[in-house]
Amino acid sequence: MTIFRTSPLLLLVLLGGCATLEDFLDGMRTDSAAQRVPLAERPIKEPIPPNHFTLASPAQSVVGVPQIVFARHEDTLSDLARTYGLGFDELKAANPGVDPWMPGAGTPVLLPTQFVLPDVPREGIVLNIASKRLFYFPPVPEGEPQVVKTYPIGIGRVGWETPLGATKVVSKATDPHWYVPLSVRREHAEMGNPLPAVVPPGPDNPLGAHVLKLDMPGYLIHGTNQPYGVGMRVSHGCVRLYPENIEFLYELVEVGESVQIINEPFLIGQLDGEIFFESHQPLEDDPVNPADRLDNLFARHEEAAVIRFRQSDKDHMRALASVATGVPARVSQHDADEVLARVVRVRNTVEEDPEAPTLSEVREMIDEAVREGEAM
């Protein structure tokens, strides 16, 4: 399991020059000496619901728990991602060194199913393009606890960026026609794959079966006929969800619902009095320097919470930001094994779909999406 533990610890040592040795050792003493049950010996539990979480209090800003599953011979990260409510990129980032196409029978795969909520008003739809994840805060009756629903999303690739800002849902449609923008038709024609001006509903429609139109001309939240691209930068700017996720969200979201689109690769949250830090690789075309993002994040939380992070805590978060696994870690425990110490081993629930594309077809679809993005 060194793929999950070596890099954070090494980076912490390398980047922690501003911290005192005592600060570093204090963090390491917190938990690293504790005896832990090996992953293979932990009891197998049922997976947590992947999309729905109830907040115990308004102060809670971390939901879910990290899980681990042992792959079978035929499993791919794409299969595991969809089964456990994750996107391809976020599962790949959480498992550096694991072959996404052939993890291998018996390989433990870390499921990043714990999330720090975005630090924005908890209402309507929030899209964090840095984490490639949607959060929906539905209205709840007064006196009842707040809930959040979260789903992986596909976003605009380089050159077709998903725009940031505040907007709203202005209309909804089932079995939509896709009126192909001229720019998209021109691009496909240049690639030797011409598109018609209008694509009717059906299996060839990339919008899938449900669409939420935003008050941003040309931008939609929709399903897809290529679910293996969910969780990646593959679209022309729109936001894609798995078919089963958009179907559920479509029934909940009303016309007029607020939508916030943000770009926050680094997130700080609280759960049961503990501070957690979640980091994602900043988008390659992000105009903001990652170091400036971190400094602003530290300052904002210190001011809002009237707390002061120790220098060693900041160094630890900078180290985690450099690794960018997307898995929230407890800030107080400067321990490379911290996440693995608390992961829950769960049952492998991947089911074989006889109509699913073959492994080579899935790999080619994803590789093609990546090539298109890199070419822009």
Walkthrough of the structure:
The chain is built from ten helices and 21 strands. The protein has 376 residues and is α+β, with helices and mostly antiparallel strands. It folds into two domains: 2-66 and 264-345, no CATH class; 124-263, L,D-transpeptidase catalytic domain-like (Beta Barrel), CATH 2.40.440.10. The strands form six sheets. It has a nine-stranded mixed β-sheet, with helices on one face. A three-stranded mixed β-sheet has the order 4-3-21, with no helix packed on it. A three-stranded antiparallel β-sheet has the order 18-19-20. A hairpin with a 5-residue loop joins β13 and β14. The two termini are 36 Å apart.
Structural class: alpha+beta
Computed over alpha carbons, the radius of gyration is 21 Å
Report the mean per-residue pLDDT as an integer. 84
The count of β-strands is: 21
Into how many domains do the coordinates divide? 2
Strand content: 15-25%
Described by the principal axes of the CA atoms, the overall outline is: globular
Uncertain spans: 1-35, 372-376
Q: Bin the helical content.
A: 25-40%
**Tally of contiguous helical segments:** 10
Largest sheet: 9 strands, mixed
Q: Distance N terminus to C terminus?
A: 36 Å
Q: Which strand order do you get reading across the main beta sheet?
A: 1-8-7-6-17-10-13-14-16
